[in-house]
Amino acid sequence: MSTRITNSMISRNVLADLNRTYEQLDRTRMKASSGKEITRPSDNPYGTARALAMRESLDGTRQHQRNAHDALGWQQATESALDKMNEVAKLTRDLVVQGSSDTVDRVSRIAIAAQIDELAQELKMHANTTYAGRFVFGGTETMTPPYALGAPDGYGGNTQTIAREIGPGVSVAINVSGDRVIGSGGGDGKLLDVLRTVAAHLRAGDGAALRGTDLRALDDGIDGLLLVRAENGATTNRVESAVSRLAEFEESTIRQLSETEDADFAKTMVEYSTQQAAYQAALKAGAGIVQASLMDFLR
Predict the structure, then answer these.
(1) Secondary structure class of 118 (helix, strand, coil)
(2) Is residue 205 left, alpha or beta, with left meaning phi > 0 and alpha meaning psi from -120 to 50?
(3) How much is the average pLDDT of 3-11?
(4) 170-173 and 163-167: which strand pairing?
(5) Integer CA distances (angstroms), 75 to 19, 42, 133, in order
(6) Please, which residues bridge with residue 131 across strands?
(7) DSSP state letter for 160
(8) pLDDT tens digit string along 185-214?
(9) d(Cα 207, Cα 198) in Å, to the nearest integer?
(10) Of the N and C termini of the chain, which has fewer Cβ atoms inside 10 Å?
(11) Cα–Cα separations (whole angstroms), residue 49 to 40, 56, 189, 280
(12) Which residues form the Flagellin C-terminal domain (predicted)?
């Protein structure tokens, strides 16, 4: 049984073929103009899912980078303050050695005591160091100065830890409390209390205490500062290593993301030119096939 091919059937088929060719041409045009291999999920469902996963990973990596850079800034501010505290402690030791000599008169010792009082204030000033508007030695009380300049010497912060996440499930503590570094006075035997004790012994003319317990206490305070600086340096090295690792991971993820969703421009333009030529040829062929007229129906 033969099937009759009508002009309307031919027209529909030609139009359908032209539409498919044009849709393909339009998709290639969109790919070329956007620079993206995937312009909608239906273009490549697997590639779309993979690109979304990589973008989520990239967002997490960049957040960890921000955290790590913030941690580095905090560590650097802490190290700078600790270095200045160490200078204060060493200068105090030199003054104690000078004032402990039996050849120094009472007036000179009182003058040295006044210098040490000023150094105690400088010590507290360094302990009030800030980074990005936050006090670095105050524990989690970052908006309140840990120490009030002048009297009393009490510590106004806390000893809680501030941490930054620098990787998936990886956190580092970035702070050290002022109470651990210089103490809070009041006979706790830490650096700030030692300076107050030294000043009192100078005023009292107690050379034996200055040469004995006071020098040993200062040396212990300086050793304590060095220990804190060593720990801070180790944390800094760890964070710097994380920054380097995160930068490498970011670069790798961006490259993979580009390979997944970015179009090969040269290849896309070749495809576009080929498809455009095919579409123009299809238009001409269709025009030649669909030329129905009144004479065609009268034959």
Answers:
(1) helix
(2) left
(3) 64
(4) antiparallel
(5) 64, 48, 14
(6) 134
(7) -
(8) 888 889 999 999 999 999 999 999 999 999
(9) 10
(10) N
(11) 11, 11, 61, 36
(12) 217-298
Tokens representing residue 213 in the block: 């317990």
Backbone angles phi, psi at 226, to 5 degrees: -65, -40
The number of C-alpha atoms within 13 Å of 297 and in the hemisphere containing its C-beta is 5
Residue 231 has φ and ψ, to the nearest 5°, of: -65, -40
Counting other chains too, the contacts that 204-209 makes at CB distance below 8 Å and 24 or more residues apart are: 205/106, 205/109, 207/100, 207/101, 207/102
CA-CA distances (angstroms) from residue 158 to 72, 144, 199, 226, 277? 22, 11, 27, 22, 75
Residue type, 247: A
Q: pLDDT tens digit string along 51-107?
A: 888 889 999 999 999 999 999 999 999 999 999 999 999 999 999 999 998 888 999
Residue 82 corresponds to which tokens in the numbers above? 């600790």
CA distance 11 to 20: 14
Q: How far apart are CA 288 and CA 231, in angstroms?
A: 85
Long-range contacts of 241-248 (CB under 8 A, 24+ apart): 242/64, 242/68, 242/166, 242/167, 242/170, 243/65, 243/68, 243/69, 243/72, 245/167, 246/61, 246/64, 246/65, 246/68, 246/166, 246/167, 247/65
Tell me the CB-side half-sphere exposure of residue 21, using CA atoms within 13 A.
18
| Residue found under tokens 């802490």 | 78
Q: Cα(229)–Cα(81) distance, rounded to whole angstroms?
A: 10
What is the widest separation between alpha-carbon atoms in the chain?
Answer: 138
- Tell me the residue length of the chain: 299
- What count of other Cβ atoms lies within 10 Å of the Cβ of residue 225? 20
- Identify the residue with better confidence: 277 or 166: 166
Q: What is the pTM of this model?
A: 0.76
pLDDT for the residue 51:
81
